[in-house]
Amino acid sequence: VQDIAQRPAAAAKLATIRRWDQDDPLRAFRDRFELPPGKVYLDGNSLGALSTDARERLDHVTRAEWGQSLIESWNTHDWFGAPERIGAKLARLLGAQPDEVIVCDTTSINLFKLIRTALALRPDRAVILSEPGNFPTDLYVIEGAIAGDGARELRLETPERLIDAIDSRTALVLLTHVHYKTAAMHDVHAIMKRAHEHGALVLWDLSHSAGAVELDLDAARADMAVGCGYKYLNGGPGAPAFLYLHRMHHNAASSPLCGWMGHARPFDFTDHYEPAAGMRRYLCGTPSALSLAPLEASIEMLLAAGMQRLAAKSRTLTQLFIDLVADSATLAGLRLATPADPARRGSHVSYAHAEGFAIMSALIAQGVIGDFRAPDILRFGFTPLYTRYEDVWTAVRKLEHVIATDDWKRPEFARRCSVT
Amino acid sequence: VQDIAQRPAAAAKLATIRRWDQDDPLRAFRDRFELPPGKVYLDGNSLGALSTDARERLDHVTRAEWGQSLIESWNTHDWFGAPERIGAKLARLLGAQPDEVIVCDTTSINLFKLIRTALALRPDRAVILSEPGNFPTDLYVIEGAIAGDGARELRLETPERLIDAIDSRTALVLLTHVHYKTAAMHDVHAIMKRAHEHGALVLWDLSHSAGAVELDLDAARADMAVGCGYKYLNGGPGAPAFLYLHRMHHNAASSPLCGWMGHARPFDFTDHYEPAAGMRRYLCGTPSALSLAPLEASIEMLLAAGMQRLAAKSRTLTQLFIDLVADSATLAGLRLATPADPARRGSHVSYAHAEGFAIMSALIAQGVIGDFRAPDILRFGFTPLYTRYEDVWTAVRKLEHVIATDDWKRPEFARRCSVT
């Protein structure tokens, strides 16, 4: 397994970098992605790429299952079991037990379910703690979950002050494990330890973690987690999200979104709700068999690659990018906004630059696809399953070109448009 | 346009029925569905069939948009606008304004959003009114939406008593327009009139109505509606659902599920939620571009067919089935559980029979796909876009065979399995 031992002195030479790609144990996975030719795609942290595996699984579910087996597919192709079956596979990437993860709905909706579960488990505690600048939906959903409840409040503390702010008034700490802008990674064990000392629950948003960094939710006795299926999990645009709940909390509370698929016996069609045991009570409406299909195939690829190898390559990719940028005098105006310590960051690298939007626009026009986050962050995501070391080298060379030639000052790059 | 003028005397002759198919103005749509050969599919009220239009749209979004344009598709292929764009198309099938409908999430989740919206609009009223035996998720979601709120109660009244039960204590009436078991259709105008006289809001579940019967939500001044995308709308298993809110209620309340896609400016990434204007505030998480694709293509087919022609054919199909069964002495043991008046029913026909499960199982083994609803209901759904009159004839002849030969008494048909 390659790791961060390789340093810029070697990295600066393209021949060396190409040898890394040849020696990469994950190399064969690249060929299973249908990437646009001639482009370097560094935005898998926002939307993961299409693999042949995912496309063929979706084709099969569409043509053979929906098309030919129709309604019978709920049983014969186990569409009913898909949320748990895929959850059990995903659990292996998260360091969780198979029955602690279920795949359904969106990250935002799953946040709502678990925030309300946490408040039910801590009825006498007033405070939900998070950090300013957390991914917006995490904060917005807290606002919605406590709206009209005068006994609860959302309190935002900076990462430096956050751990000490956890106390006996804290019902829930809600943090994004890897920050969507900076890639800074929270110390799960340290926060869990403090939280457990004070009886607080912790809900982790793993949207920028799952499939990119090693996780061990059970060992950390993490209470709850959610995350999205369309970033490093490569499940497709708007893929179903997931939620995790540690066994110690199973059946202790139920979801406020109690739809029929979360019922103990949905096909009895009774008038009163009775939650299913375990994670199925966190289902709500009818699962999307179509959008679950590519996600399942994609998770199987990640399992075949192995989380340890994926995480190691992620660290090498991000370190190579950081080192190549650091070696370039042309790029001295970019300020690294990501932790320099690979153990403290996720799988993307961010730089601050006042003209970040125009620079990223010009770079995209050169075929290197990263993204921009207001007000000044350029983001580059590195997906170990399909990003090559040579892609990193190419991206830095094109970034140098855009800066060195003042290409980014062309007026067509000044206009804002939104990217997710 | 054919309508219910055709009666069993003519219908009993297969040659006549075949002529109806030849003269059917919707005949060409049948060829655009990829139905399993040799089967008669009468369960489009549970899962609509796959059309070539839907499959090709999904293929395009998968291969070209996700695969090649990747993250840029949010803008260049307007994935962001899809929930409103598809909503505007669907609005024409519902008799709504284009800006009153949005497509997202599931029926259950959309019920939660609108129930809570209704309670916010009627803060001083205690009662949510529905009917016993309503589709379970409607009742379950009400329970979840008022859990812990001592000031609210769910009250169930039979259809006969329901209209008189609407009074000044009623915050919301929540009804499924076409009943999932019996196909009985509520009188929207009568209920809206009574509700408006007493200041109550009404939320319609249109899951068994949209694409099957004519609706005129705006003319009825219907307050709210939800419905599912995978029945007569043919959007695919677990397709996104929809919600409708009359303009008179726009911006008066917001969704309790306030995720980032419902924010006024999601890409400002602010710490505080500010709801978008109009229907976008009812979005929550990231839309599923993949599962929206086949739904959009399917809705376009329905628009091309025309809601009036679809509804007329629906009435003829259901009447033909009822008449053929009534003409058969062999089928005298089946009790019609659907209104005999075509103006009072949706697009499926149900019969009660104590051995319904085994009879339906045996019929499915004969290639006629209907479904069963506990405890004793056989359901047959007729989708005007792809069901032929001859399919109706074939289904009745096979049903006669199953009963006449006691085929249904074979032991393999006695075992229960769930179908949705």
Question: How do you describe this structure in short?
Answer:
The structure is a homodimer of 420-residue chains. Chain A contains 14 helices and 13 strands. Chain A is 38% helix and 12% strand.
Describe this structure in words.
Two copies of one chain form a homodimer. With 420 residues, the first copy, chain A, is an alpha/beta fold. Chain A has helices spanning 8-11, 14-23, 27-30, 52-69, 73-76, 82-94, 107-121, 136-146, 159-165, 188-197, 289-305, 307-326, 356-365, 389-404, and strands at 40-41, 101-103, 127-130, 153-156, 170-176, 201-205, 224-227, 242-245, 335-336, 348-352, 368-369, 371-373, 377-381. Chain A has a seven-stranded mixed β-sheet with strand order 2-8-7-6-5-3-4, sandwiched between helices. Chain A has a four-stranded antiparallel β-sheet with strand order 9-10-13-12, covered by helices on one side. In chain A, helix 8 (136-146) links the parallel strand 3 and strand 4 (153-156). In chain A, helix 4 (52-69) runs antiparallel to helix 11, helix 6 (82-94) runs parallel beside helix 11 and helix 7 (107-121) packs across helix 8. The first copy, chain A, is globular and about 70 Å long. The relative contact order of chain A is 0.17. The model of chain A is unreliable at 1-6 (pLDDT under 50). At the A-B interface, helix 4, helix 5, helix 7, helix 8 and helix 11 of A face helix 4, helix 5, helix 7, helix 8 and helix 11 of B.
